[in-house]
Design a protein that fits this description.
Blueprint (H helix, E strand, L loop, with lengths): L10 H14 L10 H5 L2 H14 L7 E8 L2 E7 L2 H18 L16 H12 L4 E6 L3 H4 L2 H9 L5 H12 L2 E2 L5 E2 L12 H20 L5 E4 L2 E6 L2 H17 L10 E4 L12 E2 L1
Parallel strand pairs: 1-4
Antiparallel strand pairs: 1-2, 3-7, 3-8, 4-5, 6-7, 8-9
Helix pairs in contact: 1-3, 1-4, 7-8, 7-9
Amino acid sequence: MNKAKPFKISKNAVWEAYIKVRENKGAAGVDKESIEEFGKDLKNNLYKIWNRMSSGSYFPAPVLEVEIPKSGGTRKLGIPTVSDRICQMVAKIYLEPEIEPYFHEDSYGYRFRKSALDGVEKAKARCWKHSWVIDLDIRKFFDSIDRKLLMRALKKHTRHEWIMLYVDRWLKAPIQTKEGKRTIKEKGIAQGSVISPLLANLFLHYAFDDWMKRNYPMTPFERYADDAIIHCNTEAEARILLGKVRERLAECDLDLHPDKTKIVYCKKSYREKRVSKHIV
C-alpha cells in the first residue's frame, strides 16, 4: 500500500505528531472538535490523516480567528483544527531537522533548548562591551510575510515535495471568524498554528540573521521571533546601521514599528549620560 502512495510519510510520524499535539492541548478549530473528541476514534482518524497526506488529497480546513488580550489591545490568533494541527506537526517533524542546523546561534525564538531568557542573558553580557543597542520591532510581522519569498527559502531546505505542497495549502487556507465570515489573505502566515513559528524563523533567517552575518559579521545581535537587539559601540554607528537594517527589511516587504523601534544607551549605571531613546 505504501508503494502506491506518491508521498512517503511514516505512520510513526503521524502517531508522534498526535502525541505532541495532545500534549500541547489547545482549543478546537472551526469544526469544534476537541483533542479529546478526536481521540475517541483515534485509529481511524490517524489513518485518514496518513492516507490523505500520503496520497496528496489532504486539504486543510479554514483557520479559526480569535482575539486574545495583549498589552495595549488585542492580538489575532489562528487556530487550525486538531487534524490540521497534527498534519502540520507531521511536516514539522520532517522539516525542523533539515532547517535547524542552518539557523543563527543568536536566534532564540521557538527553538529547541533555546529561550527568551537565554537571549536576555546574552544581551546583558554584550551590553558590558557595547554602549549602544538598536532595539528592533517589526510591525505586524506574521501578517506581512511575503509568501513567495518564504516558499523560495523553504525550497532550499527540503527535498520533500509534499512539504512544499502542504505548506502552500496552509498559507492559502481561508480565515474564518467566530461568526462564520471567511476571508482569504494574500500575505502572511497564521500566528498560532503549529508550523508558523518554524516558517517565521526561516523567513527571518534570510531576511535578517544571515544578512547580518554576511554584511556585519563583527556586530553581535540577539533575535527572538520578530524582536531583535543589535549591539553597537557608538550612537552614530547605531544610527547608520539602523538605516541599513530598515532598507534590508523593506526589500523583504517588512516595516519597523515606528514607536517600538529605538536606539538606547545601555550603560547609564557607569556614565553620566542618560538612556537616550530615539523613536524612529
